[in-house]
Fold this protein.
Amino acid sequence: VQLQASGGGLVQAGGSLRLSCKPLGRTFRWAVMGWFRQAPGKQREFVATINWSGSNQYYVEAVKGRFTISRDNAENTVYLQMNSLKPEDTAVYYCATTQNSYSDYSQRWVYDYWGQGTLVTVSS
C-alpha cells in the first residue's frame, strides 16, 4: 500500500496547516491511521491516531488542543489539522496505517505502511 501525504509548507508561528494522507489504489476504510513526525536530528515520534470509524482519536500531549486528526472514509483520506503552530512543530510529518489490532497505536512498530512524508516548517 502506498500512502501519499501532502499539505506541508512554510508557515509563521501561530498559523495553521492541514495535512492530508491518501492511500493510492486501495481503500483503508477498516484501518487505523496515524501521524508521526521527525524533526532534524531527532527520532520519529508519534503525533496522533484515529480508529477506522473516526470515533476515537489519541494525541501526544504536546499537540493536544492544537491538532485535530480526522478522516473521510468516503474520500479515503485522513487529515491532520494543525493550528497554533509553534517552531518546535517543525518536522517531516508521516502518515501510517495498519489493519491489525493493538492496545497501543502510538508505537511505530504497529504500523505496516508509511507515506513518504511532508515537510512542515514553522518560522518564529
